[in-house]
């Protein structure tokens, strides 16, 4: 028995989007094209799966952030319970450059993250805030700009 062969659609539409935009034709056009000098201060990462697997995916990124030659801290706010001091050590993170903070009854994770960002004592503040709505995202962006730092929110699902 034969099944009818249905050809897959070509990938051309993806490239047509890029081709429809005018491309600079001279070096002068390239050099005169405006460039956004303002760096992104907020990023969000969404991971799904077993907590242990998600932490294993995060380990290299957090290790690199903890090893930056900065006078400022890598701050982790409201991490999952499985992210412990022993996990930090086993993952090879520089624990001398990390602040690990948990929210308490006085401050939520969002408030604590905004405060850590605004103070400017951390090059990167990693938070685990879920859900994160648009207003909260804007608060994190404003706080990161005020403290000249980076905000990374991680959503585990």
From TrEMBL:
InterPro entries linked: Cell_div_suppressor_SulA, P-loop_NTPase
Organism: Pseudomonas helleri
GO molecular function annotations of the record: transferase activity
Protein name: CDP-glycerol--UDP-pyrophosphoryl-N-acetylglucosaminyl-N-acetylmannosamine glycerophosphotransferase
GO term, biological process aspect, one: SOS response
Keywords, in A-Z order: Transferase
């Amino acid at each position: 028995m034969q099944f009818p062969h249905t050809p897959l659609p070509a990938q051309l539409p993806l490239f047509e989007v890029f081709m429809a935009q005018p491309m600079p034709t001279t070096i002068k056009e390239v050099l005169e094209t405006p460039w956004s000098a303002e760096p992104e201060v907020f990023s969000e990462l969404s991971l799904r799966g077993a907590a242990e697997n998600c932490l294993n995916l995060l380990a290299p990124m957090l290790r690199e952030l903890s090893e930056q030659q900065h006078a400022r801290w890598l701050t982790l706010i409201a991490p999952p319970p499985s992210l412990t001091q022993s996990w930090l050590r086993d993952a090879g993170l520089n624990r001398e450059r990390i602040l690990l903070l948990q929210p308490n009854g006085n401050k939520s994770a969002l408030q604590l993250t905004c405060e850590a960002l605004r103070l400017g004592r951390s090059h990167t503040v990693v938070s685990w805030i879920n859900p994160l709505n648009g207003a909260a995202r804007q608060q994190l962006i404003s706080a990161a700009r005020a403290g000249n730092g980076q905000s990374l929110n991680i959503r585990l699902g």
